[in-house]
Design goal:
400 residues, mainly alpha, two-stranded antiparallel ribbon, 13 helices, 4 strands, disordered N terminus, disordered C terminus, mRNA_TranslReg/HistoneTransl
Length: 400
């Protein structure tokens, strides 16, 4: 190029029309480019429409014509011979490409061949396993326990479609037991789930139905109690989770009877009694805290059942607790927990039996004023029959 870039802006630009439509000089020497000699391409929607006074596709500003800022012709490389240049329309007309053509795949690739990852699993889609399904259900129930009543039936229906053999039933029992003793604070919901499955899971192979297999699994852990209660910290922690789950299971699991209403599993009652003795046999802080939690959870129910059978098992447990408070080398906080537990039992586990209507007085019935109507004074202050002195003083002030 021989032009100097220091030239003034606009210098050398010609405002004259091209010598022939569609032809223009674009370079130096003998290098030329050929524009499309057909009608100009349609203007973009954002550009001004063409008018009859502007036939050469130029804009009119103030009576002057100028070239468009962006030509609508294709400028080819200067080195390309003019004889080999084709117009856009001719290329489009002669093209064999189609928007409806099938997808292109390399010759060595099959579009229907499944992608397999290095570990042998399907790279696109893997069917969910029973373990993943149960884990998803339990995770949902753990995060949304209030949805148990509304969603449990749908969940059990899905599990029933999966659990069709003895092996899958045993796997289901193991999965629910493991999750119920491993997830913190899930023992209550897990026990409710076990009770619902025991009544609604129809599969009952020769090895036993869901409830029977669950109790067998609990017995396996029960037989290891003497070792677990003296194990390391992690072993004791797992054992304590098992004990609390068994307590929830005793309260929630219903055994149907043809002779009467559903009852609790007798075998769990015996197991809980022995588990508490096992915890007290090694009175370290962790075991004693677990025993306190278990008795707060089940103490009132256990004592009622033992009293109906004429047994004094709860008296024996309380006596053993008092001996531990006096002799065991447990921490001061744990001793305070044991003493509060003894006080709770002495108050009938916090239960208040209402006195007969004819014998009820403010002195012997703490709920005497609970159902009394509420009255209001002239200034809107509420009062009940429990405030006679306040009422008299207000009347006295008004009378005065």
């Amino acid at each position: 190029m021989t032009e100097n870039f220091d030239r003034a802006p606009g210098a050398g630009r010609a405002r004259t029309k091209p010598r022939s439509p569609g032809l223009a000089d674009v370079g130096d020497g003998d290098a030329t480019s050929v524009f499309n000699q057909r009608e100009p391409l349609r203007q973009p929607l954002t550009s001004p429409p063409l008018t009859e006074n502007n036939p050469n596709n130029s804009d009119t500003i103030g009576g002057e014509s100028r070239r468009p800022s962006k030509p609508h012709q294709f400028i080819h490389n200067h080195s390309t011979p003019a004889s080999k240049v084709k117009s856009v329309d001719s290329l489009v007309n002669s093209s064999i490409l189609s928007a409806n053509a099938p997808e292109f795949y390399p010759a060595s690739f099959s579009p229907y061949e499944e992608s397999v990852s290095e570990d042998g699993s399907d790279g696109y889609y893997t069917e969910m396993t029973l373990a993943e399904l149960v884990e998803e259900f339990l995770s949902y129930l753990n995060s949304s326990p209030g949805s148990f009543e509304t969603d449990i039936e749908h969940m059990v229906n899905m599990l029933s479609s999966w659990v069709t053999t003895e092996e899958t039933l045993q796997e289901l029992v193991e999965l629910i037991y493991t999750q119920s003793t491993a997830i913190p604070n899930f023992s209550y919901t897990g026990a409710r789930l076990c009770n619902f499955l025991s009544h609604n899971l129809v599969l009952s192979p020769a090895s036993g139905n869901f409830r029977q297999l669950l109790l067998k699994r609990c017995r396996t852990e029960y037989e290891q109690r003497d070792v677990a209660v003296r194990g390391d910290l992690e072993t004791q922690k797992k054992f304590h989770a098992y004990v609390l789950f068994l307590g929830e299971l005793y309260l929630r699991l219903e055994v149907k009877s043809a002779k009467g209403p559903p009852s609790r599993a007798e075998i769990l009652l015996i197991a809980l009694r022995e588990l508490m003795n096992t915890l007290f046999s090694n009175p370290v802080d962790g075991n004693l805290i677990c025993a306190v939690k278990l008795l707060k959870l089940t103490g009132s129910v256990l004592e009622d059942v033992w009293k109906e059978k004429g047994k004094s098992d709860m008296d024996q447990l309380v006596q053993r607790i008092e001996n531990i408070v006096l002799d065991a080398q447990c921490s001061r906080d744990v001793k305070q927990m044991l003493l509060r537990l003894v006080e709770l039992r002495s108050s009938n586990w916090g239960r208040v039996h209402a006195a007969a209507a004819s014998d009820a007085t403010p002195d012997n019935d703490p709920n005497y004023f609970m159902n009394e109507p509420t009255f209001y004074t002239a200034d809107g202050t509420p009062f009940t029959a429990a405030d006679p002195g306040e009422l008299v003083s207000r009347w006295t002030r008004k009378g005065a």
